[in-house]
Amino acid sequence: MIKRVALALLLFVSSSAAADRPPATIFAAASLSDVFQEAGRQVTKKSGYSYHFVFSGSQQLAAQLEQGAPADVFASADDRWMSYASEHDLIDGSAKRFARNRLIVITPASNPGRIDKLEDLARPGVKVLIGVESVPVGRYARQALSRLSKGSDYGRRVLANVVSQEENVKSIVAKVQLGEADAGFVYVTDVSASLRGRVRVITIPEASNVIADYPIAIAHGATNHDAAQAFVDYLLSTDGQALLARYGFLSAGTDSP
Amino acid sequence: MAVTAAAGLLLLLLGLPVLSLLLRVPSGSLLRRLSDPVIQDALRLSLVTSLLATACVVLLGTPVAYLLATRFFRGKPVVETVIDLPIVLPPTVAGLALLLAFGRAGLAGKALGAFGITLPFTTAAVVIAQVFMSLPFFVSSARAGFARVPRSLLDAASTLRASETYTFFRVVLPLSTPSLIAGASMACARALGEFGATITFAGNLPGITQTMPLAVYVAFQTDLEVAIALSVILMLLSFLLLLGLRAPAGLAERRPTAPRFVSTVSR
How many domains, chain B? Predict the structure, then answer.
């Protein structure tokens, strides 16, 4: 028995040690969690490269890169943090836009705040979640609110209802899903198949919506250059673009529809 | 030789980060930063909530610690483990658990909702998270203090027909005060540093739920200088608290009355 366990352990250790290359580390915006893991599986299947992912707010990732965190690829949910990375020599070469996204408002399925339209978000006492100003989803939400206001005090009233500024979009999704907040500003792509029954969606009209840009670049000091490049190439390929579309992202190429 | 090396390495590991933080901040700018409204809000909120949390911890923890120190009952190990759990629990797990219990859709939260009380995203939630995380530190210290009160003193009190309540307030409490103060300072320091449970259960809103550790985290992503200034302030506060914690213990060591009293009685 003990021998068998030892043998199994040995096999386990040696098989992980036998992987010819260490995985490439991909720093990516939290909103990319689902699609990037699937993209990683696809590239691994095709080329044998392996990946491990660090998902967080783009601002958090940029700060970590600046402190010397080892990464091979950086994918941000807005141009602001990619420019920041570029200005601080944290990336090599130029960044490429690989996807776009839009915002929506989600409420818990039970809709405790009785939010049926965007106007309801301004009703006093409604509990609204939004990203902190530094995280892309927070900045986009503030932009959308100012567009929706059209000179009225709508945006100011919604912001007065904010009960928490979350550090990345996934914690907004989680807290709305739990029913703790009445509504939250998130990306269209966050309402995944598994989430669909647990939240309700209120769309933001295209005229007032913002378009989130997702740039990607090879991190400065990448140690796993080939794997990193293969991942970026895949995302920009027809297959990669089709995968992103399947997860609800807008294609990178077309301009505002 | 090996001991010296280990001690040196340990000192380096603990001391160097502290020193690095201090070296990054010119003292003049630190004082100037104190007038920054974000820092002021976070500092005020942190002080108010940690003091409130400490008060709750002392009120709730003292009877429990006394019970644990003096009684044996079925399921005591389970109770002890439950109380100790927050020490080893990752704070985010604690926050999620609090959300599932006291959140709007949570087990107890639903009942509270019937009375119009909702806890998440409020300053009360910050205090609850801090109490949850710091309670075990107080209970273990207070319990040790209670357990050190000699059995003979309690027996003497009871032969003099003192009620248990009377004995607790006149004999046990005075003798355990240093342990209670030490436990309370430890709990307060832990509450001051609470981050994970707070951001998960109470959220992050300046002036309402954004305590110092949360403000450090947010500032780290936007303004490193503010983050460093906040960190230094937080570190100095914690340092002073822990240093103060040493004072009552030293006092007890020097104070001759208590031990002498004990020895006469036990003879």
Answer: 1
